[in-house]
Amino acid sequence: MKTLTFKKNSCSLIETLKHNHYKTDYDFQELYQSLDEQESIDDNSLHLSIILPVYNEARTILKLIQSLPIHKSIEIIIVDDHSTDNSLEEINKANYKGKIHIIEHKVNSGYGAALLTGIRYSKGKIFITMDSDGQHQASDLHNLVKPIFDGQADITIGSRYKGTYNYKLPLSTRIGEAVLEVVIRIFFGQKVKNNQGGFRAFHRKTIKMFEDTRFHGYAFTTELILSAVLRNHRIKECPIALLGREHGASYIILNKLFISLLLCVWLYILKNTKRLLSRR
């Protein structure tokens, strides 16, 4: 059983509004308006859970936390996956004035496992996964949640191809995403071009599919797409502005990723085939 420690800091609505000037980098007016509209429907619910998996992101995590919106309907869940640098110290420096939960894994368990921990603790009607390496921007949050609030999608995926990116994509990334795009379209009838992106939003009704995941490394993002298709969840790609990574390095090992993706896709092709045959 995984060992966790859990810390919590909450603030009242008055304190939230008082410290709202803390965020000046981005304009969250549209996001706050959407949240206020949701509150007029149900004012007793938490509407957004923003989940940040962290592994050795000491040089980026503080700036990211300080860029996040503050609202009474938003909670931030940070899952430190047993970082070996001073990521936790940087997290605690942030002095974020909204609702924030810090969860520590006592053993490094992988990207997908960190996200699952955050999702398990989340209470929002929509939960959002966001990388902590500085490439995802909080200013794009509204782009992801609006289609779900409007009833147009159950899952949204931030796409650099529909938006922008300011760095040169590695050839392996381009080829890998292109191949997966074709495979997912042919075998599952779903088009997702930016299929490896981690900036995503999910309606609470999709929570069941996370209980059956098997690939908790970086194939996790692909598995979620395939599982969502099999469960008839509506997926929509949304534009985001993706930044180049300024600090640290990716921990993806390409040969392990390739094997994981191959196993994942093969397993879900079998599941989909079985599902289609059962309908006959």
Structural overview:
The radius of gyration is 18 Å and the shape is globular. An 8-stranded mixed β-sheet has the order 1-4-3-2-5-7-6-8, with helices on both faces. Helix 2 (29-41) packs parallel to helix 6 and helix 8 runs parallel beside helix 9 (254-278). It has helices spanning 13-18, 29-41, 61-67, 87-93, 111-121, 141-149, 171-188, 220-230, 254-278; strands spanning 4-9, 48-54, 74-80, 99-105, 126-129, 155-165, 200-203, 235-242. It is built from 9 helices and 8 strands.
Note the main attributes of this structure.
280 residues; alpha/beta; Spore Coat Polysaccharide Biosynthesis Protein SpsA, Chain A; 9 helices; globular
Short description:
Helices cover 38% and strands 19% of the residues. It is of the alpha/beta class. Helix 8 runs parallel beside helix 9.
Mean pLDDT: 87
Helical fraction: 25-40%
CATH architecture: Alpha-Beta Complex
Radius of gyration: 18 Å
Annotated CATH topology? Spore Coat Polysaccharide Biosynthesis Protein SpsA, Chain A
**Into how many domains do the coordinates divide?**
1
In what range is the share of β-strand residues? 15-25%
How would you sum up the major sheet? 8 strands, mixed
User: Treating each run of at least 4 consecutive H or I residues as one helix, how many helices?
Assistant: 9
Tell me the overall shape.
globular
What series of H and E elements makes up the topology? EHHEHEHEHEHEHEHEH
Total beta-strand segments: 8
Regions with little confidence, pLDDT below 50 for 5+ residues: 10-25
Q: Numbering strands along the chain, what is their spatial order in the largest sheet?
A: 1-4-3-2-5-7-6-8
Overall SS class: alpha/beta
The CATH homology group name: Spore Coat Polysaccharide Biosynthesis Protein SpsA, Chain A
Distance between the termini: 41 Å
Question: What is the CATH class?
Answer: Alpha Beta
